[in-house]
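Comment on this:
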Amino acid sequence: MIEHGWRDNVARVKAIGFDNLMLRTDRPPPIVEYEPVVPEEGRPGEIVSFAWGFLRRQYPIILIFALLTITLGAIYLRTTPPQYTANATMVMDTRKGQFFQQQSILADAPNDNAGIESQVLVVHSENIATSVIKNLHLTEIPEFVGSNAASPSDRLRGFLGATPRPSRTELELIQQAARVLENNLKVSRVGMSYVVDLSFTSNDPDRAAQIANAVADAYIVEQLDAKFDANQRASNWLRDRANDLRDQAAAAEMAVVAFKQENNIVAASGKLMSEQRVAEVNAQLVLARARTSEAQARLNRIEALVRADSPNMSFDASVSDALSNPIITKLRQQYLELVNREADWSKRFGGNHLAVVNLRNQIHEIRDSMFQELRRYAETYKSDHEIAKQRQESLEADLAQAISQSQETNKAQVTLSALESSARSFRTLHDSFLQRYTESVQQQSFPITEARVISRATRPAEKSRPKTMFVLALACIGGIGVGAGVGFVREVMDRVFRTTGQVETALKAPCVALIPLVEAALSSEAVDGHELLGPVESKSIVRDGSVYWMVAAHPLSRFAEAIRSVKLAADLNGTDNGHKVIGFTSALPNEGKSTVAAALAQLVAQVGGKVIVVDCDLRNPSLSRTLAPKATLGIVDVLAGEQSLDDAIWRDGPGGMAFLPAVSGSRLFHTSEVLASEPVKQLIYDLRESYDYVVVDLPPLAPVIDVRATSHLVDGYFLVVEWGRTKIDVVQHALNSAPLVHESLLGTILNKANMEFVGRYEMHRGEYYYNKHFSRYGYTD
């Protein structure tokens, strides 16, 4: 029904002149060179689109690798024995009681990062491992030293008759167990604290907890032993050093005593005797000088009174008070009484009175007596002055001698001070070392350590590794990563044409059609139908179930629509006279150029155009073997003048396409010369006059050079490229080797495209190829 309806529609188009419309010669000028729209790069949307397209194209590879790695992960989980990890926690606490801090001889471990990290390395040291191995007898456990069964190498040596290797010694077993223990033991600091986490992994959960606790205990015991040994060595050294310092201090003190005796250095009350003597003599000298000055003053006063002896001299009170002599005091009193009486009587009786004269004579006598007493007293003062002076001179001599002796003593005191300082230093050192020795002896009886266990290891409830979900997740992620990498390599190495944009960019020519891949042959009903086969005649083209007849069998298919695109491109780029000679070629064989050429001819014939297909692939006439397998005459016979053109042409029923096969009785070697000959040119000219379209099936460009010889015969070429198979470099090289063909290229055709995958490569135009858009207009595949 579809075929009949389509035939009716063609008849109606013919009635309204559609053939004149599509085949008119006054068509518009050719379209300008097609420039594909390339999306801007670098935008987030473009990156997401590329990633999505990559996943859509390569997801089978990624999925295969993901499943493979997950399977390997499951096998690993199945074959790997479970392991259990037990954890113990210690703290490196250097804060102890004040009593212990005073007793401590060795410095505590520093409270800094280096100190804590050093203790972590000590916990992980070989000494601790060896101690744990000996305490727990780990050399008897196969997990640490291996099985006692003979290894394959030992069995091979025995089979070959070689001497078997000797059994391992105890030292070798301990070293092997130590390596296993160190590999399974993890010691780490918790953050920046003083807490150290200690974990051990084993096949036995109980053994894991036992070894973790044993390592912690061994570390504490090792610290205690180290403290004890260090204290013992320090105590012995302090004792010997204290004895040496005691002897040195005694010798220094004896040297001080001997030096004092040798230099007569005597001290009392903290001061030297010589210094005390100088101070005492100096004090006595000061007193003597004062007495001498006082005696000199009295002597000078008396001598002044004596030298001033005259009748008119009077004794004032100061002289009497100064002398303090009872005789002079008495004479002075008499003198004063007589003077007063003489003055009184002189007023009463006159100055010449005998009584007054007698009083005056008595006054002179008393005065003479006083001066005589003063002279005698002056001699006494002079004697006292001489005594005082002699005493002063004696003290001055004693002071000079004491000072000289003190100076000698001071010189010796310098050496004495050095000897005393040395003696005090030795004594101080001796006392200090003796005190430290006493503390070390006390500390040996109670050693302490900075580390203590704050959390002992217990039996783990579940295995620590391998973690099932982690292994499977890691395997899945790894498989996805490897699959993505393989997919990326495939993308990079995929140097074939996948999109129309690739074709247009690489070949600098528009891609006029994207022909889908037709995998299945036509149905038997379509092949056997009257519309397809037509009347059977002697030179009728043979119709079979091949893709050549897809346009006739399924006019509403996407294959037929792609062929219409080829025809439209040919119409819009035709010659001015309306006659079109269109050549179909490809870079390599089996790309579908013959199929496209035959399909285009069928389409032209269906819309009422006169069309002939000429098989010019003289070396490999595959189209002739399909359409006219029993043909005995062909283009070579026509060119040779042996047969007429009409006798060699095969037809597809009345009004269908004509076909000029290529048949040769012998193999042709110079086919390029044949195609470039004048008879071929004349043949094509005659076909131009008789047909609206001359479709020429040409050989491929790469194997032979025949196509280059047809540039003067063909109005334009269509280059058929197989989707996903033909290399880009091959096609580019083929076109570069045929520049005339490239210049006359009407367009390229991307053939045998897998439409399910095209949208995955056309990231920006993927929706263009959705079947739902074509199905709205009746197209089917």
In short: The longest strand covers residues 84-92. Residues 44-80+466-492 form one domain. Confidence is low (pLDDT under 50) at residues 1-40, 97-103, 311-318, 524-536. The radius of gyration is 70 Å.
